[in-house]
C-alpha cells in the first residue's frame, strides 16, 4: 500500500523463521496488489473502470475491507470516507508540489459519498454508482493486510512476531522473553519518540501530517484529506492508537486514525471516549498533548521527551 514493511520474528529454528517471513510477505503483497489504487491491474482499479456502469465481483478479503470502510464512514458520520480517491489530482511524491484548484476540488466533491459504494453480500459484488468515483483504501486496508501476514506466520508455528507497515504495528508473543517495546513517534518531532508501549498481543496505529507532505505558501499540505472539502485536515498534527488483543479489536481501530484526524481534536476525544479498550494520544494543532486514561498508565513515561 505504498509503505515500507518491517518484520521481526523470534524462535528457535532460523529456517522456519525465514520461510514464515517469506510466506507472510507473499501474502501481504498479494493483498496489496488487490487493494491498492497504485497497481493498475488491481481489483480496486477494476472498480474504478466499472464505476457508474456495473457491479463487479470482488475477492472476500477486499469485500471485508470495503464493509469495514462503509461501517467506519457510518460511525464517523463521514469523517472517514473510502471514496476520497476522487480527489485524484493531489501528489505527495515530490513530482508536483501544488494544490489542485478550487474548481477541480468542487467538481470532484460530487463523487465523494460512501453511501454510493454499493455492496451485495449475496453476489459478493461491489459497485461505485457514479461514473468517475474512485476508492482510496490507504486508511483502512493496511491493518487487515498486516493481520493476514501475521496469521500466515502464526500458522507456520511462529509465536513471537512484530510486523510494522509504515507505523501501523501488529505484535504477538515476546522478544527475549519480554513484551515487545513499540516506540510512538512524536508528531512534533518525527525523528524522536514520545514514548514506548509494552505489548504482547496488540495493534498500534499511527496517523499524522508528517509522513507525506509538501509546503505551499508556507502551509503544510499533507495526504490526509477532509472528504467534505478535498483539502488536507487542519486538526491534530498526529495521533496514535493502541488496541490490546489483535483478533477482537481490529474493527474498533481500523480506519479510526484517519477519521480522528478529519474530525478534529474535540470530536476525536468524544469518539475515543466510546472506546474504553483503545488507548490513545493526540498532539493537537497547537502542539499540546492529550493522553487517554489508558495511555497515561501504559505509556513508559521515562521515554517522554516533551
TrEMBL record:
It comes from the Bacteria. It holds the Pfam family ApbE. Keywords: FAD, Flavoprotein, Lipoprotein, Magnesium, Metal-binding, Transferase. InterPro entries: ApbE, ApbE-like_sf. It catalyses: L-threonyl-[protein] + FAD = FMN-L-threonyl-[protein] + AMP + H(+). Its EC number is 2.7.1.180. This is FAD:protein FMN transferase.
Amino acid at each position: 500500500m505504498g509503505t515500507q514493511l518491517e518484520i521481526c520474528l523470534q524462535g528457535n529454528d532460523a529456517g522456519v523463521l525465514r520461510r514464515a517471513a517469506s510466506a507472510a510477505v507473499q501474502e501481504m503483497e498479494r493483498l496489496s496488489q488487490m487493494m491498492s489504487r497504485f497497481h493498475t491491474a488491481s481489483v480496486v482499479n477494476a472498480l474504478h473502470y466499472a464505476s457508474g456502469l456495473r457491479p463487479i465481483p470482488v475477492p472476500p478479503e477486499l469485500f471485508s475491507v470495503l464493509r469495514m470502510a462503509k461501517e467506519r464512514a457510518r460511525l464517523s458520520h463521514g469523517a472517514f470516507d473510502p471514496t476520497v480517491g476522487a480527489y485524484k489530482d493531489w501528489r505527495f511524491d515530490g513530482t508536483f508540489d501544488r494544490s489542485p484548484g478550487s474548481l477541480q476540488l468542487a467538481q470532484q466533491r460530487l463523487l465523494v459519498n460512501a453511501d454510493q459504494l454499493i455492496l451485495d453480500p449475496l453476489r459478493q459484488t461491489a459497485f461505485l454508482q457514479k461514473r468517475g468515483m474512485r476508492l482510496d483504501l490507504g486508511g483502512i486496508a493496511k491493518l487487515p493486510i498486516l493481520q493476514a501476514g501475521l496469521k500466515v506466520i502464526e500458522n507456520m508455528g511462529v509465536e513471537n512476531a512484530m510486523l510494522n507497515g509504515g507505523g501501523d504495528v501488529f505484535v504477538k508473543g515476546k522478544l527475549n522473553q519480554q513484551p515487545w517495546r513499540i516506540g510512538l513517534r512524536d508528531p512534533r518531532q518525527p525523528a524522536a519518540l514520545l514514548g514506548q508501549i509494552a505489548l504482547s498481543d496488540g495493534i498500534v496505529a499511527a496517523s499524522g501530517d508528517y509522513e507525506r507532505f509538501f509546503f505551499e505558501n508556507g502551509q503544510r499540505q499533507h495526504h490526509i484529506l477532509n472528504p467534505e472539502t478535498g483539502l488536507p485536515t487542519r486538526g491534530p498534527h498526529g495521533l496514535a492508537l493502541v488496541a490490546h488483543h489483535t483478533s477482537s479489536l481490529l474493527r474498533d481501530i481500523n480506519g479510526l486514525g484517519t477519521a480522528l484526524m478529519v474530525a478534529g481534536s474535540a470530536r476525536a476525544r468524544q469518539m475515543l471516549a466510546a472506546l474504553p479498550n483503545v488507548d490513545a494520544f493526540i498532539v493537537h494543532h497547537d502542539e499540546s498533548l492529550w493522553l487517554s486514561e489508558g495511555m497515561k498508565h501504559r505509556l513508559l513515561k521515562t521515554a517522554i521527551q516533551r
